[in-house]
Amino acid sequence: MKKNTLCLYILMMVFGIPTIHAQTTIPIVAQPVTDRIVTFSVSDTGVYKPLVWGLDLAWLSESNIRRGITFMGADRVDVVRASFQPTLPLVNGDIQGTQITDLNTRLGLIDLTGTKTKVVLNCDPPTVDASYLGNAVNWAALIDATVKRVQARGRTVVSVSPFNEPDYGWGQYSGSNGQRDFFNICAELRKNTRFDSIRICGANTLNCDQALPWYNALKTYLDEGNTHQLAGSFDNYAAFFQAVRANGDLATGDELHNVMDAMVGVEYGMQTGIWWGTAEYARGEFVKASDGRRLGYAEHRANWTAASVYRSLEGKVQAFGGTSERQAATTTYKFVSKDKDVFFDGNGPQREYIMTLPGGTAYQTGQTNAERVVNITWGDDVQPVINGRYVLVNRNSGKVVEVTGGSSTAGATLRQNALSAGATYQQWNVTPVDSRVGGDFSYYTMTAVNSSKSMDLLNWSLTNGGGIIIWDDVKGANQQWYLEYASDGWFYIRNRHSGKCMDVTGSSIANTALINHWDYLGRTSQQWRFIPVGAPVEFVAPSAPTNLVATPSAASVRLDWTASPEADVAGYTIYRSDTTGKSYNILARNVTTTSFVDNTTMAGKPYYYVLRAVDNSLNRSAYSNEVNVTLTNNHEQVVRLQFEGNTLDSTVNLNHSASYGGITYGTGKVGSNALTLNGSTAFLQLPTNVANLNELTISAWVYWNGITTGQRIFDFGSSSNEYMYLSPRVALGGMRFGIKNNGTEQQLNTTVLPTYKWSHVAVTMNATGVSLYVNGVLATTSSAVTIRPTDFKPCLNYIGRSQSSYPLFYGMIDDFRIYNYALSANEVADLAGSLSNITETNANRNLSIFPVPASDKVQVSYSNGTDAECSTLRVFNMKGQQVLQKELVQTTELDVSSLPSAIYMLKLTNSKETVVQKLTVKH
Known about the structure:
Radius of gyration: 34 Å
Strand order of the largest sheet: 2-3-4-5-6-7-8-9
Structural class: mainly beta
Distance between the termini: 35 Å
Strand content: 35-45%
Number of strands: 58
CATH class of the largest domain: Alpha Beta
Number of domains: 5
CATH superfamily of the largest domain: Glycosidases
Largest sheet: 8 strands, parallel, barrel
CATH topology of the largest domain: TIM Barrel
Helix content: 10-25%
Shape: globular
Number of helices: 11
């Protein structure tokens, strides 16, 4: 192997040179196997799937309409579903009595949505008058009379549905003549020129298994196909929309009960979607997002669940998940950002996020109609994670929310006041709602610490100025709140029931001013900061950190800086950009040291770094000085996991891995210990960028216990269609290296790996091909393997686990390494041999130092004279900090008199190699 990497790690092993622990890296948390994965790239063009959206008035509710307008926006209420009622016979060809009253009430509520909203009509049969049963002429006349009245109010009717859920019946026909009666009504409507510009829609079935049979029986006269999703199979729900579109008709879901109904419908061709009941936060956000681009989608048909990622026209990226109202089973979805680190509702930066959608045990048994939206963000200002105990500070007044008089009595009002240290009636436990709270679970509850009573919207008000009180925590929708991030740590706090913002009456800055709710206006009296209990309420930013310095290696960048002087600095936020002076993205938050290693870098790209100090009250300093850096081109190790009782990386890149499922340690092949994986629950997850390379070597010692085929020694990818793996044995009987980028998997195959003994395996990859070595001997090679990890940028990187459902690895793994270049055959053979006989004196014969130890001057000689003129010497202390640097001229004298007595690492770098030697200074 190359002497640069070999010597560095021999020094670490033999001489006890420690890894660098002083600085921080982005932590990784191993994530469990999920039922489904939704991959997305925020930079993708996406898929355009526009919809006409509507609200429902078949369920006559002013509250539902007002709430739907608030969450969707009046401009996105394109249609409203109203009703014609076969409850009374026609009089002189017109409806009468309560039919007129109910219709006018509905039309009055439609007026709340604006002047451009169109109307769709369906049957609302609480009772059916005998004059209509089996009488297509009368039924068609009823529809016509209703349409005329709607048109007389200035509304456009775009669609009519003669029956509602005819597979259920609802008394709309007698005997088994439902399809015949529906067909005859459609035929009558076709005779009326009024309906030349109005679609006739069917069959509006309750059970989607019945949707296509009804539609096929009626489609001679239909312009539109429609189904609900309250029973039936996922397959038939999806197939129905596909069939309607293939027939050239409009595909509609006029009674969507969940975001899932909408996501699945859209995926398979639905063009109009109307929310049953109303729209809340997740539904309203999906409406707005659907005007943009769909970036990712996944479904679980057996479980009746789905999930997706959308980017809105404004650029907002959001993840959605939903379940069937009546048929879902609990499902886990993993959202994976393929192209960059992001934040999921403030959690991050990270590539993956798991959403668990709860379901029931049978039809309408244990169901919660669960749905959720999660905001996916990045940039230089990302919301903090909210989950804990806080004081709520108003941006306009600087005052905090308190319970009036410190009361613990239900019904006590909320007001603002100056902070009183330790007052529990000013403190709030703010926690995400349980996923089984009922319906949308994108919300938070806020309970007073002094009473455990919940912040509550008084009397379920939908009126501006409605009061906010405390009440027994009964999980009511009026006790749940969603958070919209404004900027700089400030949020709008909006109520689940009303959609209105928590506000201070009259935007007052006075003590004891009451708290109410109001339409979103963007004013500062509607903005709140969640300051952790114990921190002061103050808005003075700390001083910026100074003297930021960046030191590159071949696979990471180390940052060092001088701390801000204020005592209340809680930590630092690291920012990175590809462009100087702008477009910074948060790389890490809450860094508590004054150094940091960025191991998410790539070769050949310039990076620009700044940082800020953040205090306990969430005030941010100005930016530090900017530094720019590009990775070196040196051949180096990217990762080395020695598994000596931990999963830490011993290279300067600090690519520490994380375990899942209870790993243990057994007797190692190299060193004392080896990673032991039980084949049932345990695996290792590595950081995102460890294998995003054009050239590489991956090597390890493997002790395989056999049993099942398809196990993975490693698997680096992003999904079951993009990966790179090594399996000790596949179904066809041999060991395999495979790599795939959506198309056909490219492979190297060789003899099955032996069981119950240590074997060394290595995969090398460069421009000429890929090779697989076993115990230092070339087993197979191919220039036909042309896919490279940079083609798909693997971000889910595992030891012992696959990207899909193959069994987990059963056995031990030791000394797992990744290099950023392809080792030669001799270097691989060196790796497979014993390292125990290499000592300090022969660790690198090209580089020598004298005397050992040194006290004042040390002579450094480099025998590879052809490269001496362009070599650089650097001396590092055991914290990894550079303490000396000098250009080498074949033999060079270093002055170490100013260095404290200690062990150092001497590193020589030139265009051909990097060489490391131990340097001892003793005065």
